[in-house]
Amino acid sequence: LWESFQAAQTTFEFNGNYFEKSVTLQRVHLRKKPFMQGGMRLVYGMLEDSPKEQQHMCAKRLFQDLQKGDTGFQSHSAFCRSTAVAKYYAKLFRSLLKRKNMPLGFGFLACSLYSPVKSDEQGFHFCGERYLKGHFVKLNSNAGFVNEHEYSDHSAIAQAFSHYSFDRSGGSMMVVDLQGICVGEGRNMQFFLTDPQVHSRGKLERFGAGDLGNQGIRAFFQKHRCGDLCKKLGLKKERDLCDPTHKVKMPGVLNCIKWLLAGTSAR
Most exposed: 42, 148, 198, 208, by fewest CB within 10 Å? Predict the structure, then answer.
């Protein structure tokens, strides 16, 4: 039912400019059969040995690992780096809301990358995080989907956060694919989110296959309509932070402007 191996646990922190990594050794125990399936990964029950107690967690492994063999550190680190970016902007988002007298419980579960360290054990790379229990809801996706019906108040805040991450990063990245457990109402709303995706525009390395870059950012703004929170936070529009996608020359415009100016001077 279980398989166990010694693993190096790599944790990523993002400071707005670059990532910092820390590594510790852990003995991990994983269920052999997954209990859930996502768009790109399978989810397994997991226990982690610690000095105090065994932590109930879940392990996430790529489909392609089972089909083609372990894809290694870089393939899995993209998920952890996306979470590190999301946690960084969530902290800034909470601070800004607090200053505006709108405190909010909004955060992402910590995610670590686990790598096998012993050649005599049949280990593999995977991402691990605390097991999240409750009704799971998807608030937006990396391809432009916005949940406008279920948990509509929570969804409105989630869309504002995605917009905020784009604004605060100067248009270089955006945190999307917001999903997890949402509880409470009004000022008591709480967000416990997991598996975010970052769209990037070249400032940092790419964030895996789900990073759709400019295409993903445009897909978000094609659907997004700024609500009260975006306006209260003064978030910039896409056009204020992105270069135009096309430039069209209009014949005769310059001469028309000169004619208008000449007519104004004559009057």
Answer: 148
CA–CA gap between residue 78 and residue 107 (Å, rounded): 19
Q: Specify whether the CB–CB gap between 58 and 45 falls below 8 A.
A: yes
Q: How far apart are CA 166 and CA 98, in angstroms?
A: 20
Say if residues 193 and 107 touch (Cβ distance below 8 Å).
yes
Q: Which residues pair with 126 in a beta bridge?
A: 114
Under 8 Å CB-to-CB from 145, ≥6 apart: which residues? 138, 223
Integer Cα distance of 207 and 74 in angstroms: 10
Q: What is the model's pTM?
A: 0.88
**112: its two tokens:** 């670590």
Q: Is 89 helix (H, G, I), strand (E, B) or coil?
A: helix
Tokens for 181?
A: 């457990």
Taking only the tens place, the pLDDT of each residue in 6-54 is 999 999 999 999 999 999 998 999 999 999 988 888 999 999 887 666 6
